[in-house]
Amino acid sequence: MKFRFLVALSFLVFAGFLIVDSSPWGKPCANSGSCKESLQLNVDNEDTGVFNGRKIIPPKIDLTEKVNPKKILGEETGTGEKHIYVDLTSQTLSAYQGNTLFMQVPISSGKWFPTPPGEYTIWEKIRATRMSGGEGADYYDLPNVPFVMFFSGPGVTAGRGFSLHGAYWHDNFGHAMSHGCVNMRTVDAEKLYYWTDPPVNGNGTKITIYGKAP
Amino acid sequence: MEKHPRITIAACLIVSAICIVFILFSGGQKSKSPPLNIQSTNTQADLYSPPIAKADVPQEISVVSPDGKWALKMSEEKGENDTTYIFWILNLVKSSQKEIFRKTVPSGSALTIPQNTFSPDDKYVFIKENSAGDVHYLVLSASGAPLAKGIPTMEISGLFAAKYPDYKITDVTGWGGQSLIVINTDKNDGGQGPSFWFDVGSGSFIQLGTRFN
Q: In this prediction, does ipTM exceed 0.90?
């Protein structure tokens, strides 16, 4: 009896560890106030946002707007696998297809919560969503966050909501400024959004995040 | 069960080992770097490259707003002992442009457009002036109109020095909000100072508890 009990207990502990690790509430979400809601398409064209204690009018999102078919199909940048590198030290993002550089732009990684280094893939792309979280002076509530590319991988489960996305509420790129996600200029996020591969069964373009934010 | 103590211990060890491997796999990602053999295509990096002042070569530099709708363009007219810098706002949607500011500075001084010049709502821009070792930051309305009645522009460095004589500005990095410019400082007697917001709307400084490196 004692043997079975110990084995069962060990497996229960292990299963519990797996469940907690893969759940949104096991580790903090990138957007603590909208953990699950942020993972879905959400357009609020009549609403306002809050960032750094200031009211913000978000850009309107038009889901019917015509997009150049070339954008949707992705720009041809060479041959080989597409791969995005985020250098936290220099606060830059570089996107390659094979050895060909597609774009290199400044980003803002986590300031109030660190952006996790690691190897990831984009598991979902959505045109816009709402993100909220933080407390006190750091409280934020941002509708219409544009061109969101959620990523996941070892140590960062999909439910935690880490992503690359456009940021219309600040212009301090090249410096840490986010709550864990990778902020990009909207114009850069749009270009990357249409360049990345559509995720198939949760597996899209690869992302490597490395270095340490200043 | 007393006759199976080794099996019990082994089972527990295996489960523990699996947990340890899982933890290591979760947290111990390797760092990869981008490919070294780069064949660059037309990238946007050029847009963000800091302007390099080359003597006697007329320049035209522009920085696009984060939403891609506007650009701030700077052109130079070189005189014998001075240079006139002219700033234009370009509407990239309507393909139109308008001069919003010009300034003549003596030789040895230069004006540049910082990478994060546009406020998030495209209402303001700021430019940087290097003058005989001194650095000044000038805030303008992107429309070319005065910032307020009787206030065509604001010069941040002078206002800051008057209000906070114990600190000196080391960098103005961009916009932390719609009208909030991010300022980093050092203490005049040595050491790192705090960061500040400069609120263009009220013309006031806000000292921050966190530093924006």
A: no
